[in-house]
Amino acid sequence: MYVKICGLRTPESARHAVRAGADAIGVVMSPRSPRHATPEQARVVLAAARSARADVDTVLVVNRMAAAEAAALARDLGFDVLQLHGRYRAADVRAAQELIPRVWRATSLTDDPALTAGAYGEERLLVDGAEPGSGSTWDLSQLDPARLGTDWLLAGGLSPENVAEAIAAVRPGGVDVSSGVESAPGEKDLERITRFIAAARQGLAPTT
Ligand SMILES: O=C(O)c1ccccc1N[C@@H]1O[C@H](COP(=O)(O)O)[C@@H](O)[C@H]1O
């Protein structure tokens, strides 16, 4: 099970997430998010994550930013992957891939009821709730995993307490969390990060 811990802004939280076993770490650059990072914070987080494990996937997460602008930002800051939230077209994904080949498309059943993995040429599809980064859960029973293959990522309101159940329900290739591993908006809780990764990997509900 591939695990991404998102919304990191400090070197301590980045190192911790990677040492605890995260496959990917995310930095959010979206001014309305409580996790919005500056370019300098992004550089520090990337260096810390890579010092813990050189081959960790580093992901720039943006919301409704022009795709070419986001791709240039991801390339210039040295991210491995660009995660696009918003209503993009296949042409936007292709344009972004000219600058950074690894692009993940994040969408929801609300924005894209006919969800199909790879439909826009993205490396990975991330299926989220309707409000990215809100921590809100959504109705997984509305999803038809048969359309999604095996490599898609599930997000939206996941936490150490519910991730095992969510995985059992829809069998994603990976999971992504932001709010659910925080003690307050934008404040990562290292113990919750450890518990989330363990629960996702073991498929067991963790004890509190
Ligand atoms: O985390 C954010 O603040 C954020 C802001 C804007 C776009 C995406 C964001 N995060 C991504 O949202 C989902 C789920 O987040 P949560 O666990 O429900 O808080 C996840 O893909 C994050 O990468």
Automatic annotation (TrEMBL):
Full protein name: N-(5'-phosphoribosyl)anthranilate isomerase
Isomerase as UniProt keyword: yes
Pathway where this protein functions: Amino-acid biosynthesis; L-tryptophan biosynthesis; L-tryptophan from chorismate: step 3/5
Organism superkingdom: Bacteria
Family statement: Belongs to the TrpF family.
Nucleotide-binding found in the keyword field: no
N-(5'phosphoribosyl) anthranilate isomerase (PRAI) domain location: 3-198
Lineage, broadest ranks: Bacteria, Bacillati, Actinomycetota, Actinomycetes, Micrococcales
Reaction(s) catalysed by this chain's protein: N-(5-phospho-beta-D-ribosyl)anthranilate = 1-(2-carboxyphenylamino)-1-deoxy-D-ribulose 5-phosphate
This enzyme's EC code(s): 5.3.1.24
Record-level Gene Ontology MF annotations: isomerase activity
EC class: isomerase
Pfam families associated with the record: PRAI
Residues that span the membrane, as ranges: none
InterPro entries linked to this entry: Aldolase_TIM, PRAI_dom, RibuloseP-bd_barrel, TrpF_fam
Keyword vocabulary terms for this entry: Amino-acid biosynthesis, Aromatic amino acid biosynthesis, Isomerase, Tryptophan biosynthesis
